[in-house]
Write a structure and sequence with these properties.
With 846 residues, the chain is an alpha+beta fold. It contains 21 helices and 40 strands. The longest helix is centred in the C-terminal third of the chain and has 19 residues, at 819-837.
């Protein structure tokens, strides 16, 4: 929001002691951030306080703004315009600047032969202007020059040459009451506050709204008066009708009619204020609606009454505020046909939609230069519905920007009266008597009870009840003492105040956030209690980082399209996913139930930049809970791991192989070992995202703890992955209770042990885990280590068989173990393997 200071001063008397820079500081300390101060036609003070700075200065040529020299850029008056003797498109204007008349050669289309009396800005030799004839906004110095044989001793300026805008279509025509010879900086010089408003500050999206804040913060007198009009036309009854079909989305709708308007440009003072506020002047009618919107904060829309009547077959039009019909279409003012949905609110007549409520009007009823009669709309629409409509249609507007933050219904009549009166004065229109006012949802005044102790509890300072009341009254609240508390009536324009805490914030704003002292808690901190689940979660992170992985954090929101990529041969169970009612984008519509798709997208994006990618994520997934009384989903913790690319960075000394399944399995085993989880098994399973035959389930005591394996080739192709990718997803919610609280210390052995190897030939489909389990069961207490160090398929092994070679270590804690003892155990193991799984021993070594 841009706030010209001269416009602001029409509604509030600023104390002489409060400079613009001091005002900006006070507003910022009250929560209304002033992002910058823009100085129009003048230089900023030498030492701008409070860290604020002008976005441009007189020396900053790239900004397009400049300082208007008091002695060289003045108000002039065209006294004569003659044709140029040597150029058909040029004229010679004699301009009086208060100390005589000087010739100025110009080709401006709004200066023609025979004109006289127009007030214009004139720049004398030595003045600096913006270069209007190139893309480079550098400043140029005005010098006397001969143009086609005629001396031009001054420049009559356009908006672009003065640095006001990029418009160079003609000379800037000033108001008739501008005094010749007045320095332009005195007439048009101004300061503009650029406010960076948060969504709860919708009340400050108007000059009057900011004036209320300024009056409260500075003690200046507020000069806001209720708008009045002079309706001399016939009664509005019978000229139009208004009906609100959906009062839940439209609290109030007013309409008035202004007849016999004369199409003309708005006066310079209005166009100039719109320009400083960041809006482009268009025509008197449109400019008036925009001007009132900026002044009061109430968006307006003007319909061509004759076009509405024509659509009604010559009868008085009937305005209907309703939800759009399925697939209803409308061509908006930007000449784009838009398809609407049933949850969008439209302004319609009996023939169809004529505007998207609070967003943009329709092209068919647009006001044009030929418009004679106006139907003026002023209404209040539902904030959230308006925001959703504007977002879905990708159609932002100044009106929607305000409606989406809340516009009180009480503003509708005030703005309609103000705009209608301006149209009467500026276009000589005739206002119909009366106002069509549909107001089905009139709410009672909001009254909030505030206890003074609440101020101290939330702010940490004591404020007397009289001071609380005085602070709130400065902001327009009405206060009444009632049984040790204040009953506060909220003014109509403060839609953001609903609970006592909101009133406490208002008191803090008046006091000034920078004036609140730093305080400590008056109570002792509660005793610290361990959160074992959180501790183990952090331990998991430390273990995986130590294993060479990098932690990533992906979105908790996903989409059916992304999840479907994980299922190459079947449909994903998307019906069980938690779906958002108001998603931020089409790519984030559901709460995730797995990390897999997000981790694979992370791998794909990183493979463009590096040859080795090893990442993990610890977080929560969201599962529907039919037993939940509040409708909220379960949020169990999960761990996701993804590997791809080379095992390590390439080296000249050795070639580096790519990661494989056993790298991933080793990381999981390391995690289990450090968490103290014993007895877990890796069992072959089939899972849609994984390669058939290359997927394992992590299981403990029959309970599934997770799944890991190589990503299915079709899934890898869908995610645009390079090479083989390995993925694991573990259920931390189940693993954390299994983690050992204490890891026992094992002393070093006092006596030497005996190491022996055994190689057995077994069926190729026999899991290694079963062979190892039989070895442990047969080895007894003296067997302390079993390590698989070789798996062999080759000429010495029959087809359909494999050779597994193990290194076994025997150790007695109370004595030195003898070879015969070790041989006896070894023989027992061999016999057990032969009888249980049909193993053939290839060799026995010690």
């Amino acid at each position: 929001m841009r706030v010209p200071i001269r416009w602001l001063k029409e509604f509030v008397e600023l104390p002489v002691s409060v400079s613009v820079e001091e005002l900006a500081h006070r507003l910022t300390m009250a929560g209304i951030e002033v992002a910058a101060i823009e100085y129009i036609g003048q230089s900023p003070p030498q030492n701008v306080k409070h860290g604020l700075h002008a976005p441009w200065t007189g020396e900053n040529q790239s900004s397009g703004r400049l300082t208007w020299d008091r002695d060289k850029i003045l108000v002039g008056q065209i006294v004569e315009v003659q044709p140029h003797p040597n150029a058909d498109r040029l004229v010679v204007a004699m301009v009086d600047y208060g100390q005589g008349a000087v010739p100025s050669v110009t080709g401006a289309p709004n200066v023609s032969v025979g004109q006289r009396g127009q007030k214009v800005p004139v720049a004398l030799p030595g003045a600096r202007l913006v270069n209007a004839y190139g893309d480079d906004p550098a400043q140029i110095e005005v010098k006397p020059v001969g143009i086609r044989g005629v001396d031009s001793q001054a420049v009559i300026c356009s908006e672009k040459e003065l640095g006001l805008s990029d418009d160079h279509t003609g000379v800037l025509i000033l108001d008739d009451d501008a005094m010749v010879g007045t320095p332009l900086c005195e007439l048009l010089g101004d300061e503009v506050l650029e406010l960076d408003l948060t969504p709860n500050l919708g009340r400050c999206l108007s000059i009057i709204g900011v004036a209320r804040e300024v009056a409260a913060l500075t003690g200046g007198k507020l000069k806001v008066k209720e708008p009045k009009w002079k309706p001399f036309g016939q009664s509005i009854e019978g000229q139009a009708q208004v009906e609100i079909a959906d009062p839940d989305l439209c609290a109030r709708y007013t309409a008035t009619i202004i007849r016999d308007v004369r199409p003309k440009p708005a006066p310079f003072w209005m166009r100039y204020r719109l320009l400083l506020s960041g809006m482009r002047p268009i025509s008197a009618i449109v400019d008036i609606t925009n001007y009132v919107m900026l002044e009061w904060g109430q968006p307006l829309h003007a319909f061509d009454y004759d076009k509405l009547s024509e659509r009604a077959g010559g009868r008085p039009p009937k305005i209907i505020v309703r939800r759009a019909k399925p697939s209803e279409k409308i061509t908006t003012l930007d000449k784009v046909e838009r398809t609407l949905t049933e949850d969008m609110l439209v302004i319609a007549d009996e023939k169809g939609a004529i505007a998207i409520a609070g967003v943009m009007g329709g092209l068919e009823t647009e006001v044009s230069d030929s418009t004679k009669h106006i139907l003026l709309e002023s209404a209040s629409f539902h904030a959230i519905n308006n925001r959703r409509t504007a977002q879905r249609l990708q159609l932002p507007s100044e009106a929607s920007h305000r409606f989406s933050r809340g516009v009180p219904p009480e503003l509708a009549e005030r703005a309609a009266v103000r705009a209608a009166e301006l149209m009467r004065r500026l276009t000589r229109g005739e206002i119909a008597s009366g106002l069509l006012d549909a107001y089905p949802c009139k709410a009672p005044p909001r009254v909030i009870t505030l206890a003074p102790t609440e101020i101290e509890r939330l702010l940490g300072i004591r404020v007397k009840p009289a001071e609380i009341s005085a602070s709130l009254k400065r902001l327009g609240f009405a206060c009444k003492r009632q049984k040790g508390a204040l009953e506060v009536t909220v003014p109509y324009h403060r839609l953001d105040v609903e609970i006592p805490a909101d009133l406490v914030e208002e008191v803090a704003r008046i006091v000034g956030y920078d004036q609140l002292p730093s305080t400590l808690l008056s109570d002792t901190l509660p005793p610290q209690r361990r959160d074992r689940a959180l501790e183990l979660e952090e331990q998991v992170r430390d273990i995986l980082v130590a294993s060479g992985l990098t932690e990533v954090i992906t979105y908790s929101l996903t989409s059916p399209k992304s999840v479907a990529k994980l299922y190459p041969t079947e449909q994903p169970p998307l019906t069980s996913y938690v779906e958002l009612e108001n998603p931020i984008s089409s790519e984030r519509t559901h709460m995730r139930q797995t990390f897999m798709n997000e981790l694979l997208e992370t791998i794909a994006s990183n493979q463009h930049h590096r040859e080795h990618v090893a990442v993990f994520e610890v977080g929560r997934v969201y599962l529907p809970d039919p037993k939940s009384t509040d409708g909220l989903p379960k949020e169990p913790r999960r761990l996701g791991i993804a590997l791809a690319g080379l095992r390590r960075s390439p080296s000249w000394a050795e070639k580096t192989a790519s990661v494989d399944f056993f790298d991933l399995k080793g990381i999981v085993e390391t995690l289990l070992q450090h968490l103290g989880i014993e007895g877990a098994k890796f069992l072959p399973v089939s899972d849609p995202p994984f390669h058939p035959g290359r997927c394992a389930e992590l299981s403990l005591s029959g309970e599934r703890l997770g799944v890991l394996g190589e990503v299915h080739p079709q899934v890898a192709e869908r995610f645009d992955l390079k090479g083989r990718v390995y993925l694991a997803e573990l259920d931390l919610e189940r693993m954390i209770p299994l983690a050992g609280e204490v890891r026992p210390y094992c002393p070093l052995p006092r006596f030497p042990g005996i190491r022996q190897d055994i190689a057995v030939v077994v069926e190729e489909g026999l899991p290694q885990e079963r062979v190892e389990r039989l070895i442990w069961e047969s080895g007894g207490e003296l067997l302390t280590s079993v390590n698989l160090f070789d798996v062999y398929y080759g000429e010495q092994v029959p087809p359909g068989k494999k050779s597994l070679a193990y290194s076994l270590y025997y150790l007695a804690e109370d004595r030195t173990l003898t070879d015969p003892e070790a041989q006896a155990i070894h023989a027992r193991i061999q016999k057990r393997l032969e009888t249980q799984v049909g193993a053939q021993v290839r060799g026995l070594q010690s």
